Amino acid sequence: MKEFTLAVIVIAFFGIASGQTRTEWQQKVAPSLLTKSSDGASFPFLIVLSSQANVKDASQLNTKEEKASYVFSQLKFKATQTQTGILSLLDDMNVPHQSLFIVNAIKATGNIDLIRTLASRPDVKKILDDADQKFAGPVEWSQENGSRQTIEWGIDMINADEVWALGYRGQGVVVGGEDTGYQWDHEAIKNQYRGYDADRDTVDHNYNWHDAIHEISVLSPDSLNSCGLNLKAPCDDFGHGSHTMGTMVGHDGDNEIGVAPDSKWCGCRNMERGNGSPFTYLECFQWFLAPTNLNDENPDPSKSPAVINNSWGCPESEGCDPSNWEILNQAVINLKLGGVVVVVSAGNDGSGCSSVTSPAAIYEASFSVGATAENDTIAGFSSRGPVAVDSSFRTKPNVSAPGVHVRSVKLGGGYVRSSGTSMAGPHVVGLVALMISANPSLAGKVDLIEDIIESTCVPKTTDQNCGNIPGSQVPNNTYGYGRVDALAAVQAALALIPTATSNPNPYADVSVYPNPVKDEFIIDAGISKGEMSFDLFDAQGRFVMHHQWNTSGRSIEKINLEANEPGMYFYRIMNAGVMKQGLVVKQ
Q: What's domain 501-586's architecture?
C-alpha cells in the first residue's frame, strides 16, 4: 500500500496525470532533472533561451578577425538583449547563476520549484541537466619515459619534418586546447606558451588561460584537487592536457615531440580530474571565441586561436544526456563560424561499427580524428562510424592520425608514452598550424582547411564495412578520408597563394577565380589567341574534365563545377604552348 501511495504522489507531482499547463512546462525539462527532483534538493541546470542568434552571415566574411568579431558581437548582443528578465528573477531569488553567450543560455542551481517557474516562461526553450560527466581517457599510459628519437614516429609518419625543412614550423599561429589543464612551465611547452616572454623571462596569463572549473566534481573520489579551483595560472590536475599540448607544439631543443613546434598556445581547463559537465565545455568554447583577462572581463575576439584541440568526450553510457547534444553542437557551429577549426578525438570505443558516440565527435561541424598505429593501420580501440546515436548516420571520423605509443609531455617533467584518439587529434591541430604558417590567408577559412586536409590524406581502406559504405571506398567509416599527410596538405596550401609571373609570353596571362568555388569559376585570359584548353584532375590525379574553346584577345570562359563533388582539384590550362597549373577547391 505504501508503494502505491508513493507512486500516486510522484505521478501527481510531475503532472503526468494533471492538466495541460503542467504538462507543457514538463516538456521543456530534461527527464533526468525530473527524476532528480523528488527529494526537493537543489542541483545545477542549464536554461536555454528560445531566441538564439543567427550568425551564418559570418561565412561571407573574409578574414578570421572579421569572422570572430562578427560572431562574438552578434552572440553577445542577443544574450544581453534577451537574458535580462531571467537574470533579474534569479538575482531577486538569490539563485547562483552564470550567463553564456556562445549559446544563449544561463546556468543556475535550484530545486524543482525554480525549474517549474522558469520552464513556464515563454522565453525559455529548454532546461537541461548539467550533470558531471567522466571523460573517456587514454587507453593506456606507459610507465617508462621512452627513449628519445630524432623525430617522433608520428611526426615522421605524417611528414611534418619535411614541412619543417621547407621553413614552416607553425610560426605566427596560435593553437588552443581545452582539457584537464596544462603544466605551462614544462620544458617542452613553456617557450611556446603565448603568455611567456622568453626574452624577459616574464609571464602574463591574461588572455592566454581560463579556468572553467569552479567547484569539485561530485564524481571525484575526494574533496581535494592538486591544482585548486578558479585558477589564475595554468595547472594540470590529471596530466592528460599537458600530454596533448606537447604533441601540438612541444620541443625543448632535443625532444622534438610537437607537430608545429614554433606555434604559440593558449588553454582552458574544462575538466576537474577528468570530470566535466556541459557547462564547463561550453564555458571553454566561449572563451576561445573571445579570450578574456583573468577576471573574465574585456573579451577580445582578435586573440582567438586558429584551431583548438578537444581530446575529450562523454558517451551516453557515462552520463551524457542526448537532450544537451543540441546546445553543445550549436556552440561548435558558432565557434567554427567564428573562424576556429574544432578538432575532436573520435573516441576509444572501437573496433565495432557506430562506436563514435560522444559529443563533440558526433557533430557535422567537428573535425573528428581516428587513431592509427606505427604500422599505419587503424588502432583497434579507435571508434568507427557511422554516427547512429543521433540517427544521422553521418560518416565519421573525418580523418585519422598517429595515436598509439605517442611520446609527449609527462606531468611534473620528462616524457611519457600514451595511446588513444586523444593523442591523434593533436597531430591534426599541429597540421592546421603548419598549413596556416605556410599560407596565412587560410586563417579563419575552416571549411577550406578541412577540405585540403581530407583531400590530401593518404587514402586508407579496410575490409570492415560500416553502415552503407564499403571499407574499400574513400572516405569510409574506419579511417575517414585516410591518414593525414602534412607535406601534401602544406603543398596544397601553398598552391593557393597567388603568384605573379614575369613570363614574357603574353598568352601566360591567365587568372582563375573565385577560389574556393561553389558552382562556377572563371578563366580570365588577359591576352590570348587560338585554341585554349582546360583539364581538371581530382586529388588523386585522376582525370575529371576537359574543356576547350577558341580565343582572340581577352577571353573570359566559365567552367561549371556544380556536378562535381566537394573537394580539392588540380587544373591545367594550355594556350599557345604555354601551360598554367594550379589548384581549385570546390565547396
A: Sandwich (2.60)
